[in-house]
Amino acid sequence: MATVEVPYQETVPLHHPKTWIGKYIFSQDHKIIAVQYGVTAMAVGLVALILSEFMRLQIAFPGWEWMDFFTADHYYQAITMHGMIMVIYLLTAFLLGAFGNFCIPLMCGARDMVFPFVNMLSYWVYLLSVIILMVSYFVPGGPTGAGWTLYPPQTITAGTPGHDWGIATMLISLAVFIVAFTMGGLNYITTILQARTRGLTLMRMPLTVWGIFIATFLGLVAFPALFVSAVMMLLDNFLGTSFFMPAIVSLGEKLQYSGGQPLLFQHLFWFFGHPEVYIVALPAFGVVSDLISVHARKNIFGYRMMVWAIVAIGALSLIVWAHHMYVAGMHPSFGYFFATTTLIIAVPTALKVYNWILTLWRANIRITVPMLFALAFVLTFIVGGITGLFLGNVIIDIPLSDTYFVVAHFHMVMGVSPILAIFGGIYHWYPKLTGRMLNDTIGRIHFYFTFIGTYAIYFPMHYLGFIGVPRRYYETGISDFYPQTAHDLNVFITVAALIVGASQVLFIVNLVHSYFNGKKAPANPWGANSLEWCTPETPPRHGNWEDQLPTVHRWAYDFGVPGEEKDHVPQTVPRRKAS
Amino acid sequence: MRIALIAILLFVVTVGSVVFNFTTPFHFDAIGSNWELIDITVYITFIICGIVFVVLGLLMAWWVHKFQYKEGKFAEYEPENASLESGLTIITTIGVVVMLAPGLVAWNDYIHPPKDAYELEVYSKQWTWMYRLPGADGVFGAAHNKYVEFDNPFGMKKDDPYGDDDILILTDTVKIPVDRPVKVLLRSEDVLHDFWVPSIRAKMDAVPGMVTYFWFEPIVEKMYEVLCAELCGRNHHSMRGWMHVVSMEEYGTWLNDQVTWAGFQEGQVPLSPEAARGRDIATTNGCFACHTIDGRNLDTGPTWLDIWGGTVTLDDGTTRVRDEAYIIKSILDPHAEIVEGYSPTMNVPEITEEELQSILDFMRVLTSEPVKTEPAIEGEEGSVDLPEGEPTTQPTEEPTTD
Questions:
Q1: Domain holding B357: CATH number?
Q2: Residue pLDDT, tens place only, A215-261
Q3: Chain B residues within an 8 Å CB radius of A304
Q4: Alpha carbon B312 to chain centroid, angstroms
Q5: Which end of chain B is more exposed for a tag (fewer CB within 10 A), N or C?
Q6: Pick among A151, A395, A557 to test the B interface (most B CBs inside 10 A)
Q7: pLDDT (tens digit, 9 = 90+) per residue, A64-110?
Q8: Which domains does chain A have, with CATH numbers?
Q9: Count: domains in chain B
């Protein structure tokens, strides 16, 4: 990659906002937009968290009189909304909308995103999609209870709660979200490709930016498939077309559909849905790589391998989607292909894990709060990753699919792991964002509750799958496959879930309290090398840099370089002539 | 050096996970089918992944402890190590191949049912199961959701000759013979469902508009609960059925009690389990040496067909209403009232009250007049699931008795 002599953004005049509203509400500053994305995502994530606590209470205490109001309809609506909120409106929005917006321009040495106005629009359209989603709870029939996968025909037949209004608001909200994502995503890609400062070659970029870059690319490829399926399902529901609907008899009533193909939806959904896993995972990989390197005071081991692993995982993630459909009734020969591609993807993924751990070897590890979360991420991700080897291997998926093994697996790998990475990232970048340090003690307590708690929830849950407890059951009743001991375990899991849920209050208190009362943050509290820590002001002002953009001379991982005075050398420091 | 709390925690979590794995009662139950290869593949994966998990977890714990921060210390500067990285790549690839290979072999078996497998159709709808067998000709009649009506619950195509002998099982309970491979064909009337018995290991979604399949060979005679494994609406969790793996003989007897599509169209219904038991008790007690159930009157005794109801002339010239009391008296005290033209040769049967009730259940089935004073026949595991408006007491198809 040739370095650009005069970076693009150095030639573009920056218009500072003149009003308070222009500065903080309809802001075009990527940092403010990042906060807006982050706060909205966390708020809607709290809704998902509360829904999950209701679900857990129902599972552990079926028939408890205090839970009488929570009917089967409510339960299925809760699992649907919880899943969709977590995957799309929290994780995707937070990792790309919040971290992407905050990290890309700062780490690339840019003043802002390339299209600041579109960037602002992206947030407001995202907010609209969240509002439409929340409106689901106020439409006749409530939100859809079809499960977050929204499989037809049941999404739009009478046996499913929210089969008319609820599914409409869900699909419209998703379509609006995709519009928002596309506006943001084009910005992220263009900014990374066009607005890196002088000297910042692609192979010098921090892994956070690499992760966000490839994830955004995946999103731009994959989300259109979801958009198309949402449009087609709306047509099936409201205009009576038959894209996904074959001739069926719904609860004794013959419907006027014929010739549609439910599997078509599943293919479209997972063509989006599987890359979606990596849209969430890759930025988390990137963030964790940077956290481990910085806080272990050591270069990330095998940087080039890490980059190519991200690229390889991204590419492979586009051809593994049907491993979610092994028992869906698709052509059985697909099983060979998708099992093989899925297990191949394990190789670059495993290499990333090895490299994180090898980075610890002969490091000089500072056990800070961000580091705690990064370490917890790695262990959680190992569990989630290896259980993926079970489910990806087609024949093992046969007995385990649609059981609690699957629930435990995907919560480990794309629920808890990315959330731990997000927490780590917040504790890491909060000082730069606000100019204040987060409270360390509260941070540690929050960490131990969250890590131990989530592990206690999801590790034993895998084993419920082995005895055959099916997922998405409002209640199991008295059955052979559900012994009393399994029920006891479910009570334990629910107690752990309540504790984890409650402990998140600590995090919110810490965020708010430290914003006003936290210790003043130095410009580079962790001794990191990447460009965001080199801004002239903390927090960085609009435009981030002085008249001249910074110049990059090295990668972001020069920790412990022999012969240097300090254990870290920022990217802006010129290389010595001799070396 | 002080041991870092996180190092202890990583160690405890890693070791604790292993301990949990070996002490938990929650593992696959005893397998009930031929799919040991699935269990073996899981076992191989467990071992490989378990080792990787323990090694990585312990390394993390150890290194986090060992390489704690010391002021002024520099970490080792080694950005890359080509031989280490390629070595790890090769080892990982080998591990993946070892897990994938048996999986693909097993999958190959899974999607190729053996030639001698018989076919069983599982018909699913919100929120119950029904079953269909191809009957004597071994070929299913054509069927489609568009033909489904109240009086055509499987959507049979009416003029298809292959369909006439198809056996319809209109309850959520099916019996299958042990040690015989079965190819399960799945249909759905409405939404996605998934026919699943955990101990069998195998499952597959039922998708409306198409026929999906899987196969297995049951190896244990046992009553299994059938679950729906694919979210199918608000009563998904209560969509249960029963799959009873039985001996070949029991299967044959059960099969004979079922109705064909042709019979169903004529209004026949299958025997309830109680009635079938009554017939078996009658057979054991030799009743059919002298009585028929097809309407022929032998010299030794009157037929049981329509014996319940109407009137009869006794050998003393009086007429008698054939109500329940008369039937019971005739069984328990056969010489008290003799029907005109017969001689008192019947032995007093040695049967319990319960067995008597079962025989009455069977006789009730043979009666065309509805018995209004009696509760409808309803069994725990085999209640007749008839569409509304159907007569419920039509005579069944002739059951074979010996």
A1: 1.10.760.10
A2: 999 999 999 999 999 999 999 999 999 999 999 999 989 999 999 99
A3: 80
A4: 44
A5: C
A6: A395
A7: 899 899 999 999 999 999 999 999 999 999 999 999 999 999 999 99
A8: 28-244+259-534 (1.20.210.10)
A9: 3
